[in-house]
Amino acid sequence: MYPSNLKYAESHEWARMENDMVTVGITDYAVKELTDLTYLELPRAGEVLLAGDAFGVIESVKATSDLYVPVSGQVIEVNAALPGNLDILSEDPYVKGWMVKLRASNLAAEVSSLLSAEEYRQRVEAKS
Amino acid sequence: MRYPRPEPLIFELSRPGRRAVTLPASDPVLKPVEECLPAGLLRSEAPDLPEVGQLDLVRHFVRLSQMNMSVDTHFYPLGSCTMKYNPKVNDWAASLPGNARVHPYEPDEAVQGVLALLHRLEHMLAEISGLAAVSLQPAAGAHGEFLGLLLLRAYHDHHHPGQVRSDILIPDSAHGTNPASATLCGFRAVQVRSNADGYVDLGDLAGKVGSQTAGMMMTNPNTLGLFDRNVLQAAKLVHEAGGLLYMDGANFNAIIGQCRPADFGIDVMHFNLHKTFSTPHGGGGPGAGPVGVCRALVPFLPVPRIRCEGDRYRLDFDEPLSVGRVRSFLGNYGILVRAYAYIRMHGPDGLRRISENAVLNANYIRARLQDFYELPYRQPCMHECVFSADRQKKRGVRALEIAKRLLDLGFHAPTIYFPLIVHEALMIEPTETESRETLDRFIEAMIRIARDAEENPAVFEDLPREMPVGRLDEVKAARELLLCWRT
């Protein structure tokens, strides 16, 4: 449910690191908590964000939530197909459901504040 | 009465040639419309409007209205929305000819009574809040927020030219309108965490406040139904940084007559007249969100201001620092009349009893349901209490199913999934206008639901069953919004 090769933020985003390229999405837990998704807004490529900045908005029949980047960097690519087909997020949140790719600017310092899959799983289970 | 079939759309009732009203032929001979309007503005075909006789028209809309739940038909404990009863005498006052038939372009001298009423209402709201002056222009709570933030910006631009004060601090328990208003006004909304007791986390606030802070928006009591005991320290931190403190007055009915926001450090606030002051709500009519300000913000209030000189009233447009108009004419006048009637009817002692009973009713529900539903913040509440359906969710019954089941049991559902910081939130606001018997019936329904969740979760499938329509497809409605009739 929480792939061990990813890092996680308490606000339920995941990050996949490949050198300084970081792919970001939201976890299976977040998708299930939001229930039926209705709307997703993603940033434009080129935006420069600091760790913790909102990069988009996701809306469900239950709530509207900001999406936060787990690390600082510049948006290189956006999954343009995703807002038009939100079912992808329920089916495959970790691969096809990726949201943005960032070129990280401060990865070495920031990565330590992210959670491992096991740490994230424990936090989530404590909640539910 | 059950609903025998879904009510057809008005378009489906249409038959060619039927009319609800037939106008007599015009006495004077009129010029043909082709001679009055240029060809480019004329349509070649008649619009595709429904054609329905008057009786069919009346029955259609009466039947639709009977499918609604409303405060006049059902207990309506919608947390954060204050669905209190709207006294009918308010409507009588608003429909008096001097109020209902006045024309917005009449000169000041011809509408002295209107100006007197508005001037008195401004002063009453100022007295109740402890603030220096009030603008009645904003047409709703969020409009009031927007004006409040415009005033904040005007204040900083005037007193601190050249400084960049970009941030509005907003607790994570806030109404969604707060960050939306801040963003719309060009500020950056910065979230402040709540602590374990549900109050503003002062450590988090201290780390986020600074020379970039334009102000902070607080809702007090907050959306957890708790009076924020940290408000004085929060005000001190914001004021020391040169910022101003805004209060979202959505929950003012919990403290009206007990304390004045100005005394706990508020510089600017809005009042939701459609909540605390019993004017119609939501689809029931236009809102009104007057804004009260401290002395330092008075010069920036919208024009026109209403001036009283001896026994005469006039509109004053001569305020060079004013942010300008935010609403045509004098605001939603009919609503302002209703709020005025409500305040006059209650007087100071009556207003105090409103908050006492609102708080008593909410605590009665909290105390009687706390063994059946989880209560994340356990201290006594103000005008509303927030439960979590986490215990029921483990049995497969979410807050959503509880809400749908309540509909079938004859109650409007409470607010669910808000505030966001409570998991599976059920936010219940009974208001002061409900009797003990009504509260008991609601409590018994909630207890029955909690028992069913343990013993008989099957009753929660396919809800609601007793409503005019079954479960609506909210996802399809949001993703494929279709509002046009097509044959």
Task: Provide keyphrases for this structure.
heterodimer; A: alpha+beta; OB fold (Dihydrolipoamide Acetyltransferase, E2P); 6-stranded antiparallel beta sheet; 3-stranded antiparallel beta sheet; 21% helix; B: alpha/beta; Aspartate Aminotransferase, domain 1; 3 domains; 7-stranded mixed beta sheet; globular
Concise overview:
Chain A has 4 helices and 9 strands; from the N terminus they run βββαβββββαβαα. Chain A is α+β, with helices and mostly antiparallel strands and 128 residues long. By secondary structure, chain B is an alpha/beta fold.
Walk me through what this model shows.
The complex is a heterodimer of chains A (128) and B (487). Chain A is 21% helix and 34% strand. Chain A contains four helices and nine strands; from the N terminus they run βββαβββββαβαα. Chain A has a six-stranded antiparallel β-sheet with strand order 1-2-3-9-8-5. In chain A, strands 4-6-7 form a three-stranded antiparallel β-sheet, with no helix packed on it. In chain A, strand 6 (54-60) and strand 7 (64-68) form a beta hairpin. The longest helix of chain A is centred in the C-terminal third of the chain and has 11 residues, at 117-127. The relative contact order of chain A is 0.25. Chain B has three domains: 1-67, no CATH class; 89-345, 3-Layer(aba) Sandwich (Aspartate Aminotransferase, domain 2), CATH 3.40.640.10; 353-476, Aspartate Aminotransferase, domain 1, CATH 3.90.1150. Chain B contains 14 helices and twelve strands. In chain B, the strands form three sheets. Chain B has a seven-stranded mixed β-sheet, with helices on both faces. A three-stranded antiparallel β-sheet of chain B has the order 10-12-11, covered by helices on one side. A two-stranded antiparallel ribbon of chain B has the order 8-9. In chain B, helix 5 (112-129) packs parallel to helix 10 (333-369), helix 6 (141-159) packs across helix 7 (177-184) and helix 10 (333-369) packs across helix 13. The radius of gyration of chain B is 25 Å and the shape is globular. Chain A binds chain B through residues 35-39, 59, 61-65, 86, 127-128, and chain B through 176, 390, 393, 400, 417-418, 420, 423, 474-475, 478-479.
